[in-house]
Specification:
The protein is mainly α. It has 22 helices and no strands.
Length: about 500
Amino acid sequence: MRARKSFKNIAYSFSFSILNIILSFVARSAFLYAFDAEYLGLTTIVMNIIGVLSLTELGVTTAIGYALYKHLNEKNYNKINELMKFIKISYGIIGALILILGLLFIPFFNLIFTSSIDYNTIVLTYILYLLTTAISYFFTFKQVLIISDQNAYVVTNITGIIRIVRTIAQLISAVVYQNFMIWIILELVGNMLTYIIINREVSKKYSWLNLNINKSYRILLKENKEVLINLKNIIFHRLSGTVSTQTDSIIISIVATARDIALYANYLLIVNGITNILAQLFNGLTASIGNLIADSDNKKSYNIFQQLYHLEFYIGVCVTYILYRLVNPFIEIWIGEEFLFSNIFLLIICINFFIQVTRRTVDFFKDGYGIFYDIYAPILQAMLNLIISIILGKQYGIIGVYIGTMVSSLPLIVFWRPYILYKSGFKITFSKYLISLFKLTLLSILAIAVSEEIQKLVNFQVNSWISLIFYALITSIVFASILFLLFMTIKSYRKIVSRLINTASKVIVRK
């Protein structure tokens, strides 16, 4: 049952993600056609400010989700209702805080936005995004339940369909009206419809859900001390993650030119699109991991972790190498050579991308075990990221900001977090992780070296969409095949490949 639910969540998420990334590129083309590139920089910075403000969510979802796994497994509906009331009130408070703190940002816009766009347009755009984000917390709290119950595909379907309709409406408006505010309003209306419809679907699916419990917020806080302890620790992890991801664009807006911000936004669209696809691929497993840990021993959990980690590493290496090879040719054909960054900058982006996409399995199992106490490492990472990014950003611009993120992320994500998981979760020696990481890295470097030699021999010229598609197919197939053959020498990787084939076969046969 767990494997089937995971497969279903992944299948729906992956399909919608592919379709939406295609629409995103079409929408970006229409956006650049209809509006000045500075508007692209404006929306990028606004969304990152909103992302920083969303830090006030403070990990409530993760803490409650961890607590829900056990009660869903035991069908303890009374306790689930209490936890859901707790998260409903918490989300209401969070929404109010986001709105208040967001309004306090407005007096500092002259420092953040160095643009020729009308100041009133900047403020109105920001307020619309801010209101939508704040209001969303009054609707989306129920999503925690459906995701924890391994039914994330319901959220994915609704979100995906509305996003497709919204994007088509934006394309038409861009061509017909070329009005920036209509574009923004359509995006925000689409988001609000998504929240409302998902909320209704959750209410239908979980008819036993009752939030009219005669308990005050103070009593709920007192009765759920474990949630509060986890919540306190998760705050620091959220701080680290937010500083590492959301503040980059804010720092870039201060140290870079408007043109560089526009170029950066295009690379960000591609990287975020691919990151989202991979996130959907693995997020379908999140609740299943919590459920697995709730009713399994450490040995079984560790074996599943090994398989998923090897699969994730394989996918991460493949996608990162292909990303490095294809991004600049894609942008050159898509919108022109004048929108390109250097290969060195692209390499730094790809390294950061790889670090982020290969951390999910460790994070999922760490959260599944409820290991949130390691608060000092993320504080250090956040401080290092800010300091190094600001210093290098002033000297080298955008590439300096990305180097700061890479240097601060590498020790924590690649080494510290796995160490904590092995020590407190699996309770086995960390050397096993290091040996595994060394093998995977060595095989990956070998695959890259062989592929680079093949690239030199072929010397393929990319100058049209047809040649780009052909080059992408050849590069992807050759590299993925080489890496696949090398990784098949590892037992855990062979097991996960066999498991995926068997699960897919069963789903197809049932259909």
